Amino acid sequence: MAQKEGPGAGEENDGLHRPLTLSEELSEVVGDGPMGRADVVSGLWDYIRKNDLQDGQDIKADDKLKAVFHKDRVSMFEMNEILSDHLREAR
Predict the structure, then answer these.
(1) Number of helical H runs and strand E runs in the chain
(2) What is the pTM of this model?
(3) CB hemisphere CA count around 18 (13 angstroms)
(4) What is the pLDDT along the chain (91 residues), one digit of tens a residue?
(5) Residues 6+ apart with CB under 8 A from 91
C-alpha cells in the first residue's frame, strides 16, 4: 500500500481532522458538519475576527457565541475546552 505524501498526508486519521458532528448552536457560527476539530477552530476564529470579538486574550460573545459559551466573555484557552461540549463523533 502506498503512503500518502505532501501536505495533509494522513490528516484524516488524526484527532484534529477526524469528522465530528457539531451542536446546532456551534453550526450557527461555523457552518454545518461534520468537520474536523481543526476546521471548527479555524471557522470559529474566522467568525471572531470578522465580527471584531477579540479583546486581548478574551473573546467577547455576541448572541451566536453566547449560545455556545453560555457567558458574555471567555478566554482563548477556555474556548477550546467549551468546544468539547459541542462536538460528537460523526456517525
Answers:
(1) 4, 5
(2) 0.79
(3) 8
(4) 444 454 444 555 566 778 999 999 999 999 997 999 999 999 999 999 999 999 999 999 999 999 999 999 999 989 989 999 999 987 7
(5) 21
d(C-alpha 76, C-alpha 9), whole Å:
28
Q: What grid cell was written down for 40? A: 471548527
Q: In what order do the strands lie in the sheet with 73-75?
A: 54-55, 58-60, 73-75
DSSP string covering 13-47: GSTTTS-EEEPHHHHHHH-SS-B-HHHHHHHHHHH
Total count of residues recorded for the chain = 91
